[in-house]
Amino acid sequence: MSTSTTAPETANGLSTPAPPRRVGPVALGLRQGRLEVRQFLRSRESVVFTMLFPVVMILIFASIFKGEIGGGVRFTQYFVTGMIATGLMTVGFQSLAIQIPIERDRGVLKRLRGTPMPKWVYFVGKIGMVAVIGVAETVLLLAVAALLFDLTLPQTAGAWFTLLWVSVLGITACTLCGIAFSSLPRTGRGASATVTPVALVLQFISGVFFVFTSLPSWMQQVAAIFPLKWMCQGLRAVFLPESFGAQEPAGSFELGRVALVLAAWCVVGLVLCLTTFRWTSRRDG
User: Cα(237)–Cα(161) distance, rounded to whole angstroms?
Assistant: First the structure.
């Protein structure tokens, strides 16, 4: 026996439309995440400078520096750790710190705040986009390095697990810091000029382009304040021999400290997001 799906009738015989079906929080988050990913992929500049930049850099550096840095470690094997870390930082910190001010300047955030959509859905969409692009970027980078430059991938489950938790903590810290930093640029047009120099300086002082211990000691100490240095160090524990840890500043990879520092930055980033995020531009008050 079939059930009727027609709309109920009122006293005057006219049918009333059925109430709209409520969308659950999970569905809302997934929809917003898919929207953010599509918008990211439609921007050629975002794809090139965020997703393909680490791949291009490893193609250039690995083609130029083909020797060893010592201890039987090839430059490519060392360099890929910095490229994975900077790729995660780029998609988590740099892209959000530039995208959000542009959307704020265009009034997108102001309109979103005036809709019935919960505010958290916007952030879930951004986080989902960062996660999807970050995974895709890392897989692409590892595939290129392994196929073209004989990168030795992690050999044990423990190494893969370390890669996982360092990447998750690192990209979480970078994402939260990117959302918080998005309140600094005064306009969307000036966001890139404000954010990009910060990202480049962090890359140079954190051992992305050079062997970290070859940098001046004061530069190492400054880099140790920020997450990128610890992301690179944690990833070196994954891709480099255990014996190479003796060449780190502290004489080991210090994975426990890596976890503590990155977790601390997640807390700091969350606090800054909650206290500094703005939905309107400065001219809107």
Answer: 11
In a domain, 4, yes or no: no
Round the average pLDDT of the chain to a whole number and report it.
86
Q: Does the residue 135 lie in any domain?
A: yes
Of 252, 215, 222, the closest CA to residue 236 belongs to 252
Both tokens of residue 19? 């109430």
In angstroms, the CA 202 to CA 208 distance is 9
**Structural domain span for residue 272:** 25-278
Arithmetic mean of pLDDT, 169-198: 92
The distance of Cα 163 from the centroid of its chain, to the nearest Å, equals 15
pTM: 0.86
Q: What is the pLDDT of residues 216-234, one digit of tens each?
A: 999 999 999 999 999 999 9
Q: Which residues contact 92 (CB under 8 A, 6 or more apart)?
A: 130, 134, 170, 171, 172, 173, 174, 175, 177, 178
Query: 256 CB contacts (<8 Å, ≥6 apart)?
Result: none
pLDDT of 18 higher than 80: no
Q: Residue 77: which residues within 8 A CB-CB, separation 6 or more?
A: 151, 152, 239, 240
Q: Is residue 207 part of a domain?
A: yes
Q: Is there a domain that residue 18 lies in?
A: no
Separation of alpha carbons 235 and 126, rounded Å: 25
Q: Provide DSSP, 80-129.
A: HHHHHHHHHHIIIIIHHHHHHHHHHHTTHHHHHHTSSS-HHHHHHHHHHH
| DSSP letter (8 states) at residue 4 | P
Domain count, the chain: 1
pLDDT in tens, 71-125: 678 888 888 999 999 999 999 999 999 999 998 988 888 888 878 888 888 999 9
DSSP per position, 143-203: HHHHHHH------SHHHHHHHHHHHHHHHHHHHHHHHHHTTS-SSSTTHHHHHHHHHHHHH
